[in-house]
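Amino acids appear as letters; backbone shape is given numerically. Here is one record.
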Amino acid sequence: MPISRLLPLGLLAGSLLLPACTQQYSTEQATESLPAYDTAVASEVPAYDGASEPNREGYAAIAENHFQSVSQAPLSTFAIDTDPASYANVRRILTQNGQLPPPDAVRVEELINYFQYEYPQPATAGAPASLNAEVAACPWNPEHQLVLIGLQAREVPTRVLPPANLVFLLDVSGSMNDPDKLPLLKAGLTQLVREALRPQDHVSVVVYAGAAGVVLPPTAGSDTRQIVAALDELEAGGSTAGGEGLRLAYQVARQNFNKEGNNRVILCTDGDFNVGEQSQEALEELITHERQSGVFLSVLGVGEGNLQDATMELLADKGNGNYAYLDTEQEAHRVLVQQFSSTLFTLAKDVKLQVEFNPAQVSEYRLIGYENRALATEDFTDDRKDAGELGTGQQVTALYEIVPARTALMQAAAINKPGQTSAVGATNDELLFVKLRYQEPQGHTSRLLTLPVPAKAAPDIREASGNLKQAAAVAQFGLLLRRSAYRGTASYDNALSLAQSALGNREDALRQEFVELVRQAASLDASSARATPTEERRYR
């Protein structure tokens, strides 16, 4: 049965094209005024032939963070980011393709944040998160130290979370015809509808190919059968009017805006926007404008061969949302069902971390990853500056590699605390000072959390907690895959040993899988080295 039969006849009469400008939200506007999706329009465009296309996956170039001198730049500032996309994509390339991933596909902070760590819930009443820190010797450079900073968002039972106004925006163009694209998305969203959606939630379905249209108007979460039926009928074919689809999805979300709820568009695509607005600048401008309405954007990426990872990461960052890559139905279940709350419900927005290093204790530091989330020092106190979002129960983990101060000639400096400024001659008993700023989901004024980290002897990494050992193992794995200039003495054997030590007797399927990924990467890397002339080898 064609998709158009799912819609009232009145919907089919609307134009398939939206005006160039975005309409302002109005409660008087009716969903019936929105265009319906007509499969005949999409079918006029020749279907994408995956077999004839070269691999043209797109990744943003990453310029790794350098070591910074504390005397010159004592403050390190960045926006939080826990998108799981890079890890799942790297896993796909290693296991399904049997290849080492392109270095720019490896965002080390996303690999680290794919895993759960044992951080305590916030003890302060009203605080959205707890701040935690730990220090140990750096496993790939014993003369350095590794600092873990962990953020644990408050757990909120799903049943008491505000109602959700969700718009599923699905790319049904010809490039989505492969089994690991549209069929995988339909399976994952069906799991969400059947296992996580609540009666108070509402779902709309918008699709785009040669044009965009509404497949399902806002429907209560209790009407599982109707939502699933709308998803089942979707078929791929045509070119990709991505900008058109985004405009329409935002319009649907704004027309059904819930002032007390969670309003979100979930874009499902391989990121191949080849019709209409397709430049990152145009898409960024659209989404930056739309987020002011209170509608956030999350992105689910799928497929291989033409995966536009850079575009999808940008959209999620600018849309106050998150970006996940789905390589299997198990990953879809993890992201959309098991992590329903943290993925789709924002506890705090524009969350920024700033670390001030004590020059009496630290001479240099390097933030591992977060290259595309770096902020200027003054951005930390600028509440107009966009930053990362924190979901309920979500965790954020960051690692710094630091060079301890080695000379008594370094002058002591106070750590900048709320209401104070750094001053020479203060105490030297702190290694660093962590500050976090956040805003309420619908707020505009930031609040501050702080954590002093005392200076003390750093234990060997083997004596560190399971948290730090796991994070260090994953970071080392990422540095090797990235061919990082800062990998030092890193090795797959070392990463494997740390990962196995962190696992212990735990029945953790994801950590057990990681151990196997390290082995897979080590084998592929060894094979690559044997097949490559010595002067072109990755490691020497």
